[in-house]
């Protein structure tokens, strides 16, 4: 059973304490927390986390990792997210790309990328979504065609590509052949984001901040050795990647910062019945979502690939994040102001401005429910 009560081991409790102690010294006094995994891009912090062995934790030691269980990585991620730490640089590589390279990559690719990822020094983007495709990966139109001189030439556009203007590479889903079945003919290529023909254009939030990008690929040359896995196996590889992307604590902890500050505000001024009700309502759902995500982590450690269950967790988590934002907005009864000296006001204003993206990134609600329904139907038969 994937979803079941999960109790921490003594080792897991000690690890959580270690991460909290690290954060007490690594984050400067007066540090302003960020919202979830789209946090500040801070290579110095990422290297410090890497030095503790907490980036690419599940990667074997021979490639620079810790050879740790998925649950250990979950615990570290949960504490970093809860603290609003600046994890934006290494996040995607740590969460999914490193595992993809380990599972599908050649030995040369593993030796080239994994030690730098685990050191917190090499950063990947996720190149899946496209204009007019979004969460429907089978609609991908970015093409890779054989270059007579060797390798591939890639043309197309990717969107919602977090930190593409700052990161080193993008694991890119594209069409390497045309097939009547649109799920066939897809492959994954590692694209150097500094290569000629790559342009990252900012997609700004309503408040003017920017971490999303539109990435234009104009006849970009990709060497043959940058093909990840088998040609034509991109659909299967990408869907397995989504089990890592959709099931973690990042899908319900994005708005932990404003929630914590609201609780502190209520404690300082004295909580009324409406405050207590609001806090109790979202806290109960957070506990439920956390248990679901813990179940996925345990299942991954046990060798399962719970794609449908991960879709359910993501759907639950990101809808809950929207609910928390609205609950806090109504309960707080304040005029939102970006740049406010009041931390709660500032964080809530940022959450309101960027919140619409939460239920898009990693798959829209409609697509997630379709994935879950198909998985449940398959399990039934």
Structure in words:
It is built from 11 helices and 8 strands. The protein has 381 residues and is of the alpha+beta class. Strands 1-4-5-8 form a 4-stranded mixed β-sheet, covered by helices on one side. Strand 6 (198-204) and strand 7 form a beta hairpin. It is globular, with a radius of gyration of 21 Å. The model has no long low-confidence stretch (mean pLDDT 89).
Helices and strands: which structural class?
Answer: alpha+beta
Spatial order of strands in the largest sheet = 1-4-5-8
Helix content: 40-55%
Distance between the termini: 17 Å
Mean pLDDT: 89
Helical region count?
A: 11
Order of helices and strands: HHHHHEEEEEEEEHHHHHH
What is the gist of this entry?
With about 375 residues, the chain is an alpha+beta fold. It has 11 helices and 8 strands. The mean pLDDT is about 90.
Please give a handful of descriptors for the protein shown:
four-stranded antiparallel β-sheet; 11 helices; four-stranded mixed β-sheet; 46% helix; 381 residues
Fold blueprint:
Elements: H1 10-26, H2 43-51, H3 70-82, H4 91-104, H5 107-118, E1 124-127, E2 143-146, E3 152-158, E4 169-175, E5 186-192, E6 198-204, E7 210-222, E8 227-228, H6 234-246, H7 256-269, H8 273-301, H9 307-332, H10 343-354, H11 365-380
Parallel strand pairs: 1-4
Antiparallel strand pairs: 2-3, 3-7, 4-5, 5-8, 6-7
């Amino acid at each position: 059973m994937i979803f079941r009560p999960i109790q921490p081991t003594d080792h897991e409790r000690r690890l959580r304490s270690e991460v909290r102690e690290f954060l007490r010294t690594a984050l400067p006094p007066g540090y302003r927390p960020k919202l979830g995994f789209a946090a500040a891009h801070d290579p110095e912090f990422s290297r410090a986390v890497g030095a503790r062995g907490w980036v690419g934790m599940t990667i074997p030691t021979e490639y620079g990792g810790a050879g740790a269980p998925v649950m250990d990585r979950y615990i570290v991620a949960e504490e970093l997210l809860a603290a609003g730490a600046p994890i934006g640089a290494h996040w995607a590589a740590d969460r999914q790309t490193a595992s993809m390279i380990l599972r599908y990559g050649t030995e040369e690719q593993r030796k080239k990328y994994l030690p730098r990822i685990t050191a917190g020094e090499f950063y990947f983007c996720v190149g899946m979504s496209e204009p007019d495709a979004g969460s429907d990966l089978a609609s991908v139109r970015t093409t890779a065609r054989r270059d007579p001189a060797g390798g591939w030439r890639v043309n197309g556009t990717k969107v919602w590509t977090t930190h593409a203007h700052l990161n080193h590479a993008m694991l890119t889903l594209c069409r390497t052949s045309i097939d009547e079945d649109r799920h066939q003919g897809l492959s994954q290529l590692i694209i150097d984001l500094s290569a000629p023909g790559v342009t990252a254009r900012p997609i700004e939030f309503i408040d003017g901040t920017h971490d999303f990008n539109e990435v234009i690929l104009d006849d970009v040359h990709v060497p043959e050795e940058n093909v990840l896995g088998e040609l034509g196996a991109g659909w299967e590889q990408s869907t397995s990647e989504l089990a890592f992307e959709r099931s973690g604590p990042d899908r319900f902890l994005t708005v932990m910062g404003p929630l914590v500050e609201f609780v502190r505000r209520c404690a300082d001024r004295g909580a009324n019945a409406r405050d207590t009700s609001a806090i109790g309502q979202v806290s109960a759902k957070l506990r439920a979502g956390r248990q679901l995500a813990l179940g996925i982590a345990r299942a991954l450690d046990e060798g399962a690939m719970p794609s449908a269950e991960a879709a359910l967790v993501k759907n639950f988590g990101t809808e809950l994040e929207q609910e928390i934002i609205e609950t806090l907005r109504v309960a707080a009864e304040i005029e939102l102001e970006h740049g406010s000296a009041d931390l709660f006001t500032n964080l809530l204003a940022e959450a309101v401005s960027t919140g619409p993206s939460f239920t898009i990134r990693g798959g829209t609600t409609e697509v997630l429910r379709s994935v879950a329904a198909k998985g449940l139907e398959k399990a039934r038969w």
